[in-house]
User: Fold these one by one.
Assistant:
Number 1:
Amino acid sequence: MNLAYEPHPLIRRLESITDLSQSEKDALLHLPLMLREFAADQVIVREGDHPSESCLVISGMAFRFKMTEDGKRQIMSFHIAGEIPDLQSLHLRTMDHGLSTLTPCKLAFISHRSLRSLFQQHPRLSEVFWRETLIDAAIFREWVVNVGRRPAPARMAHLLCELFLRHKAVGLVTDHAFEFPITQSEMADALGLSNVHVNRTLQELRARGLIGEQGHLLKILDWEGLKQAGEFDPTYLHQEPGDEAA
Amino acid sequence: MNLAYEPHPLIRRLESITDLSQSEKDALLHLPLMLREFAADQVIVREGDHPSESCLVISGMAFRFKMTEDGKRQIMSFHIAGEIPDLQSLHLRTMDHGLSTLTPCKLAFISHRSLRSLFQQHPRLSEVFWRETLIDAAIFREWVVNVGRRPAPARMAHLLCELFLRHKAVGLVTDHAFEFPITQSEMADALGLSNVHVNRTLQELRARGLIGEQGHLLKILDWEGLKQAGEFDPTYLHQEPGDEAA
DNA sequence: CGATACGTTGACGGAAATCAACCCCGGTGG
DNA sequence: CCACCGGGGTTGATTTCCGTCAACGTATCG
């Protein structure tokens, strides 16, 4: 099955972190995909599941999360077009967290079988996907720092910087603005804050002239200022193509 | 170069998460290693470095960390014998964090070149090491939850549960007790707390009869109670050998 | 023996949680 | 058509957990 999207979001994403040969791109284009549409706030994969396929985000936003016993939720990552949030299930049988849509999403399911066969035919692609999961891990590390050691305004600013650059890397930024469908409660669950405090912190960032909002769009008004406020160093995103070891 | 240690700590570690064939074990035993000894609190790899080798912990404890601009430190993981804390540098050229010894350590450096050639000859081993980095990521995710959503006593208890099980998986637990060289300040930097609060939290856990300490040993007095206090679910450690997808 | 690192205790302050209203807006059904 | 509803956002009052500061104890070591 082929995709009507041009360019293929997965290829766009992978090319933001590495170089791809034509035959590798061809192989990726011919990966068998099961397209499905999800409404907002639908659980895609449940904690405890044993998936036999992984899920590529074609459009919309998804997130990974865990619940604590007293019903609190921690969001551990947000995912945009071109990413495969549960790629790890290829080598970890049991889901240790949930995956859910945030907005309505177009998702493409890829069976582990076809991934394995892809890697067999293109061993370098298996390194590229490995690299992809390593970047995932690098982002988690940075989130540990963020929730562990930064006060609320810096924490917020840091998250916004990350989301901005990740959108930019796949061409989803125009005029320093990008689609921002995350509610304040969801930000709270991602940052380890209360929704009330998220609200006040956002007001502070707006008042400091760092960001502005128009409807679903988030606009970065002062990139340098925002980076500074969030102590943001983009190294951990490992975005430069050609960055991987020879 | 061969190791005087029996069994090889790397093999013991990998066998705690997967099954290894005899030829795979042989190949691992013949990996060329550069043994070096480090004193306590020595930086092994610096943030920003471009390593051409990765480092296997033979004995002692190491940790990964980042510094924030105002000089605060966040520890992101602890590592014990058999683990390769900077395996990710195989596919991520730039270190986005530091790696340091906690105690005096015996370390074995493995060049990326020999890892690549090992994976070429034993493709399944590359999946095993990939799996290893995925478990790493799963632990980071759990740490995000821990620092983001749990109050200090639960946070502490959760960390102790994790360290206990990881030591147990490689045979480093006797009589519910294991070597515990982490100072209270270091725990503070791992948990996103102050050293003072760590001190008080530890006293609370001792007073509740959950743990006891004798010198460098930490003893789990009430495993069920500690698990409950930390909302601990070991799924995320993915320890069962045979757990990986066929 | 003093130096130093680690652990412990008390007093105080502050960042963020909680609780509780209230507003705004889009959807929907009587 | 308008009333009602519910989700998201906003605000103020109050509480609490945890940080900071500062002092002191204790053990190890050169």
Note: Chain A touches chain B through 50 residues (CB under 8 Å).
Number 2:
Amino acid sequence: MTTAKTKILLAEDDENLGLLLKEYLNAKGFETNLFANGELAFRDFVKNQYDICILDIMMPVKDGYTLAKEIRQIDEDVPIIFLTAKSMKEDVIEGFSIGADDYITKPFSMEELLFRLEAILKRTSSAHKTAAIEKFEIGKYVFDVKKQTLQLDDKVIRLTTKESELLKLLCTHQNKILDRNFALKTIWLDDNYFNARSMDVYITKLRKYLKEDDSVEILNVHGKGFKLVM
Amino acid sequence: MTTAKTKILLAEDDENLGLLLKEYLNAKGFETNLFANGELAFRDFVKNQYDICILDIMMPVKDGYTLAKEIRQIDEDVPIIFLTAKSMKEDVIEGFSIGADDYITKPFSMEELLFRLEAILKRTSSAHKTAAIEKFEIGKYVFDVKKQTLQLDDKVIRLTTKESELLKLLCTHQNKILDRNFALKTIWLDDNYFNARSMDVYITKLRKYLKEDDSVEILNVHGKGFKLVM
DNA sequence: ATCATTCTTTAACACTTTTTAACTCGCATT
DNA sequence: AATGCGAGTTAAAAAGTGTTAAAGAATGAT
């Protein structure tokens, strides 16, 4: 039996660094595909199966963060590592790193990258088998995150992506306050006024879906966020 | 079903001690996230679900006591252990330990920490299942903390967050004086003049809600605070 | 490509929550 | 009784939220 090589998607606009990384990783036994911007990387990601993605944040045409978000749209699980400039503020990186498995600040050593890479692959490959089904019980409802459905007895409500993302955040914070801005940055990527209003609209929708069970409620905490209590 | 690791939030500014504790706890099967100050710890707490918090009192930027209060704002139940310097007076510690499940004076052995940790987890994890409903009987009223409702016979009054928080504090101090500044710092985080006046407005509101039962009263203790008697 | 459908955002308006202001009353110390 | 400060109360201001409908985008089928 032949063990397939671990496939790496590498998005890096700096050609020197990109080729260097590719050479190094391939020498270490990986199969690396390099793309000069997020657009090209994404087009290839759609067509191929990758085990891990290494994305530079700063890239022309499509930046790494946007790319990561798009990758997440079609694959919730593939590990993503960000490459960030050291000059970036910690809180910015923190925002970026949401949904990422790790980030490395430039300049970094090849060894460091390899180390983290292996740590993540180890961690995710074992977790992969168990984390397949993710369901929440919300009162009498059953919320299937992956299938984006909300089930009550024999009635199945199909949720949209945004509805599902928001409900998932509420569930993971159940009986705690889900901070408005956190939710906005996580789901909408930007906590501006319009996105905030959009979120309010979705809260209304979720409340409508959940109104059949009085033991479940989405409370508002003025100026802070929302709380799913049950 | 997979048993998830118990997640520990560790806030400790002494890097040596912090890493040591983290290593030790992880070796014992916990998943520990270490933060160098209260600010960083809080930011992460908002985003993640922790099973227990271990907070050093003395920390730069944001001390452990302040952090604990903010944590309590969004999570009433998560166990909190304080790490305190031995030099602290007992009465100070007592004040600090309000809302905490335990405190350990430095220096302490790893074994001691582990012992207390497990004791608390045992205690709270079993309580968790029952303590889901937190209700107070206030005369003929029933106050549901989680759902922020005040019920009298078949009439249900929906309380706002601030109303609910204040009433809860009054209930936990029933027939005892609820200190003004304590309440302000707990709910408003700051005991300035305007917040104090705001609190007075809320006292008026609560009195109105509770006026149907003469056996219940919110008394003022001049210059000290308020007392819910019944 | 075009149309129909679904999802998401924007707009509009009503309503709530919280804070601030203003005025009044009461307690305590002189 | 006079003073000063704390507290009681009401109302308005300021900010935030609830809700519905329609516009705009994205998606999928013909």
Note: The longest strand of chain A covers residues 80-85.
Number 3:
Amino acid sequence: MDKRKKEKLAKKGWKVGSVAEFLDLSAEESAYIEMKLALSEKLRERRRRKKLTQAELAKAIESSQSRVAKMEAGDPTVSIDLLVKSLLALGMSKKELGRTIS
Amino acid sequence: MDKRKKEKLAKKGWKVGSVAEFLDLSAEESAYIEMKLALSEKLRERRRRKKLTQAELAKAIESSQSRVAKMEAGDPTVSIDLLVKSLLALGMSKKELGRTIS
DNA sequence: TTACAATATGTCAGTTATGACATATACTGC
DNA sequence: GCAGTATATGTCATAACTGACATATTGTAA
């Protein structure tokens, strides 16, 4: 099974913690995916707290609604870089980001 | 001044903290760069602690010596994703990564 | 139900990151 | 000085990510 497929499955329904055994991911692979999922969730949370639609957030960060949706869905084509930049744009601090990742 | 140039300069000699004012980066931009630099430094530190050459590390993570050098130099063409994956491969935990970023 | 807003999913052309390679520079011991 | 090793820098073809768009699905209020 290729990595893309794995990540795509990983975020669908399978709650963090059981992902690894089910898909036989290495420790590093699952840590990486868990980090991305944590950032995804924080993004949605932050956006909602600010009462923004995906389209509005997209405009603010010069992206598109579809990409925001993919970020929040933990889509494997989304980089950590983009997630981090978006969260910073939403006012998150390095410290909070650090805590989110852990 | 374009972003590439900024980041390239940012890592050369100008110690974190004065970067922002000197290059008039936004708060988010400098936070992003500071995070990358922190990860870069950790990578070099971890690699050296394990007594690995850049070439050896490169082989372990299926990359190249030149890319490892660029990672450690904070080169703007290096993504956070690659830095994170490399650090995970070196045995770093999510928790440590979180602390590094903060 | 219907109508509308929000979100999700698929695709794709343009951009950026990547590994690989060549080559330059720095570092070490002789 | 010289050799040998490690690291740095530049370039390039390929791969991965990106915003944009179309369209589907879900949510929600009347």
Note: The interface with chain B takes residues 27-28, 31-32, 34-35, 79-81, 84-85, 88-89, 93-95, 97-102 of chain A (CB under 8 Å).
